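Design job #97: recover the sequence.
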């Protein structure tokens, strides 16, 4: 998943993604992937909820403490699973509620199934996203988010099952103009209790110009 990660941390030891990928890959050898319909539902269950990188931040302050809220939306639609994702940086502030009210990332994603059993995740920007801040909260009183509020999809992510409730996702090299980049790549791991995301931007010479250098952000699920 492309999660709009905070500014690039200082180079440190690799944690999270470099650990998570071999573990998930070993599961792929041991367990068959479910059928396409159940696969979409399994991914939706694994990816929705509230998540935090607080433990990673405590171990290495170069990684910000980020809180992510992922909500399933539009369940009546038959063209895939749709989710709303909102993220805020909580480290560096004493007023955590004020920080939640100023998310740096708000996106909608559609996950659809391909004929070969893989999933594709497309992510859409939202017009005037401030209207929907806190949409994940029960009893949200703001306007209803509709497909008309979405822009064109961004860089697609191809997702493969790696055991029940475990998924790996990769993008191709996608155009990007952030901080001097010309392209970006994304790698992710999703399990029932966490997701790991590693987004990086590269300049025309292939040098990384944004995103974590040592490894992806690790978001642990916060129980309801």
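Job complete. Output follows.
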């Amino acid at each position: 998943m492309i999660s709009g990660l905070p500014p690039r941390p200082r180079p440190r030891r690799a944690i999270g993604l470099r650990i998570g990928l071999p573990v998930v890959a070993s599961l792929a050898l041991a367990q068959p992937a479910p059928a396409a319909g159940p696969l979409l539902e399994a991914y939706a269950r694994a990816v929705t909820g509230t998540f935090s990188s607080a433990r990673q931040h405590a171990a290495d302050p170069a990684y910000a403490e980020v809180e992510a809220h992922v909500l399933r939306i539009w369940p009546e639609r038959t063209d895939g699973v749709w989710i709303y994702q909102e993220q805020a940086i909580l480290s560096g502030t004493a007023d955590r509620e004020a920080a939640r009210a100023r998310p740096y990332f708000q996106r909608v994603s559609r996950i659809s199934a391909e004929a070969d059993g893989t999933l594709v995740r497309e992510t859409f920007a939202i017009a005037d996203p401030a209207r929907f801040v806190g949409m994940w909260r029960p009893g949200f009183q703001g306007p209803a988010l509709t497909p008309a509020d979405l822009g064109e999809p961004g860089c697609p992510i191809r997702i493969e099952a790696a055991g029940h409730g475990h998924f790996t996702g990769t993008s191709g090299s996608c155009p990007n103009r952030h901080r001097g980049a010309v392209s970006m790549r994304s790698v992710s791991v999703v399990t029932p209790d966490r997701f790991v995301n590693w987004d990086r931007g590269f300049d025309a010479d292939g040098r990384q110009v944004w995103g974590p250098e040592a490894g992806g952000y690790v978001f642990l699920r916060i129980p309801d």
